[in-house]
Amino acid sequence: MLANMNDVLIDAQKNKYAVGLFNTIDTDALEAAISAAEELRSPIIIGTAEVLLPFAELQLIGPAMVNMAKNASVPVVVHYDHGLTFDRCMEALKLGFTSVMYDCSTDSYEDNIKRVKEMAEIAHSYGATIEGELGHVGDNEGSMEGDSHLEDPSKFYTDPMKAKEFVEKTGIDALAIAIGTAHGTYTCTPKLDIERLKQIRNTIDTPLVLHGGSGLPCEDLKNCIVNGIAKINIFTDMCVAGEKAIKECSGDYHAIRAAKVNAIKNVVMSKMKQFGSDGRY
């Protein structure tokens, strides 16, 4: 069933579990993610991001995502992740995406508020939800998000004192925060600023989002959830599992595809169990 973020994140926040955002840039990953959600009776957020569009254009993958969400037996949010441009966010909304992230986190604080507020009003008019980002989540080497590896990431962490004002002025439904995670593959285990997370959680009631969830130890994930994270983004772990399955399978095309889908599905199911979203529906 097609849902938006409010349909799944409010309950997640209340009951201290998290809903996974799984980027699905082809129908193999799409099938794997939704079948995992249905098997585990878990809500799920499926998505794609602006930096991933060269590999699957919105007009190609978007309708498939929306159609599969409508026909699923569990709540499925169709989310446009890290929307960098106004026009692309609008394209996603017009295709039927039920949620968008308008990422203006590299803008000035004032411009971030101004641009996200405008998009929030538009998204809400479509019946969709919106995610904003305060602070800036960095990128590990090889990340699809770019090459802006930060020498001192803490300079870009979310300011708890600004979080309340940002949420109130923009009208967003979920807030992505920076507390030490990064996109891509970690070369070492990140040190997460859990105290900062607690401060933010104590300041606002809006569901909080953790980007860069792939590769984090289970204990870190659980610690983040207990202290207020309601949405966790996963992509790299799915890619790694799919690539490994393809390389190890010696069968024909159909066997290779089946191995890839099964490997990605196993990753999604594992994350759902770690997040505590299984058995919620």
CATH topology: TIM Barrel
Distance between the termini: 11 Å
How many structural domains in the coordinates? 1
N-to-C SSE string, H for helix and E for strand: EHEHEHEHEHEEHEEHEHEHH
Identify the CATH architecture: Alpha-Beta Barrel
List the helices and strands and how they pair.
Layout: E1 2-3, H1 5-15, E2 19-23, H2 27-40, E3 44-49, H3 58-71, E4 76-83, H4 86-94, E5 99-102, H5 109-125, E6 129-134, E7 138-139, H6 160-170, E8 174-177, E9 182-183, H7 194-203, E10 208-210, H8 218-226, E11 229-234, H9 236-248, H10 253-275
Parallel strand pairs: 1-4, 2-3, 2-11, 3-4, 4-5, 5-6, 6-8, 7-9, 8-10, 10-11
Characterise the protein shown here.
The chain is 47% helix and 17% strand. It is an alpha/beta fold. The protein has one domain (2-275): TIM Barrel. It has an 8-stranded parallel β-barrel with strand order 2-3-4-5-6-8-10-11, surrounded by 9 helices. Strands 7-9 form a two-stranded parallel ribbon. Strand 3, helix 3 (58-71) and strand 4 form a beta-alpha-beta unit. The N and C termini lie close together (11 Å). 51% of the residues are buried. Mean pLDDT is 92; it is low at 140-150.
Tags for this model:
two-stranded parallel sheet, eight-stranded parallel barrel, alpha/beta, 47% helix, 281 residues, TIM Barrel
Provide a brief overview of the structure.
The protein is an alpha/beta fold and 281 residues long. It has helices at residues 5-15, 27-40, 58-71, 86-94, 109-125, 160-170, 194-203, 218-226, 236-248, 253-275; strands at 2-3, 19-23, 44-49, 76-83, 99-102, 129-134, 138-139, 174-177, 182-183, 208-210, 229-234.
